[in-house]
Design a protein that fits this description.
23% of the residues lie in helices and 32% in strands. It is α+β, with helices and mostly antiparallel strands and 286 residues long.
Length: 286
């Protein structure tokens, strides 16, 4: 059993939480109460559905921070806090983008040395102007990056309950501004089947309360030289997020890899019988 599963099982065993959630739809818990079982930020960091604790899955519950030191546990029977990308990224046609900047002139950033961090992938997309191309923007100015505490904003839970969120730590991988928009970017290395919409929703609602400009939300993944972008329309209700556009690109190379499988097989010096050696397996060609 995972550490988070053990911690949440112990928490639910010690506190009468389920009756309150079933009666009211939600219950507020303190970080101090959670800390008896595990570090609260680790208990609440559930970025994909694979990380959801078993007790949450069993009872249709999800969690969000609402104040510094307070969390809300709420009914979410359809798991609307998470957006299911499924195979939509994988099924996108891959477009070739010609960089508007001579990438070869850079000694410190190159796709030949695989981009291994989210910030590197973001910077590469920005410097090449691929990000400008996807967003259809002639100018972008990096104005937001990193963690901060949010301003107050309203949030609507799946049960229609409206709550106030304030002074919660949010993180933006990269935020840009131009004459008419604020663009918020959440980036991941490797494709994702789903993600916790809090990662875009909280920054969106924070900056929507501070700016009169249009606030745009973009989820980006980088995998095997492929940049995939998904832009969303959303509002203050959990589960409202909808895809407005989705595209995938490679920069300055062919979108189709040419592989001679016979040469690949012949290059393997020795093979073992399946019964005698535990070959690792993967469910993703990347």
């Amino acid at each position: 059993m995972k550490a988070n599963d053990r911690a949440w099982d112990s928490f639910f065993a010690d506190y009468d939480i389920l009756s309150g959630i079933n009666e009211q739809g939600s219950v507020i818990v303190s970080a101090e109460a959670l800390k008896k079982f595990r570090e609260p930020r680790l208990m609440a960091k559930l970025d994909t559905t694979a990380e959801i604790p078993s007790v949450f899955k069993q009872h249709g519950i999800n969690i969000l921070p609402i104040q510094n030191g307070s969390y809300i546990l709420f009914k979410d029977l359809t798991n609307s806090l998470y957006f299911e990308l499924g195979d939509s990224e994988e099924n996108q046609p891959i477009e070739r983008f010609a960089s508007r900047f001579d990438i070869d002139a850079l000694d410190t950033l190159s796709t030949e040395k695989l981009l291994t961090s989210e910030s590197q992938a973001i910077d590469f997309a920005y410097i090449s102007e691929l990000l400008h191309h996807f967003l259809d923007c002639s100018s972008l100015h990096l104005t937001i990056r990193g963690r901060q505490f949010c301003n107050p904003f309203d949030l609507q839970l799946p049960n229609e309950e409206r709550i106030k969120v304030s002074n919660v730590q949010i993180e933006v991988d990269a935020g840009y501004e131009n004459q008419d928009s604020v663009i918020l970017l959440e980036a991941k290395i490797g494709r994702r089947k789903n993600f916790n919409t809090r990662q875009l929703l909280f920054p969106y609602l924070n900056w929507k309360s501070l700016s009169r400009k249009r606030v745009r939300c973009v989820f980006m993944t980088y995998s095997n030289s492929i940049f995939s972008f998904t832009e969303f329309d959303t509002n203050e209700r959990i589960g409202s997020m909808q895809i407005s556009q989705q595209r995938s690109f490679v920069i300055d190379e062919s979108p189709v890899a040419v592989v001679n499988f016979r040469d690949v097989v012949n290059s393997v010096e020795k093979c073992y019988e399946p019964d005698s050696f535990p070959f690792p397996q993967a469910d993703d060609m990347d």
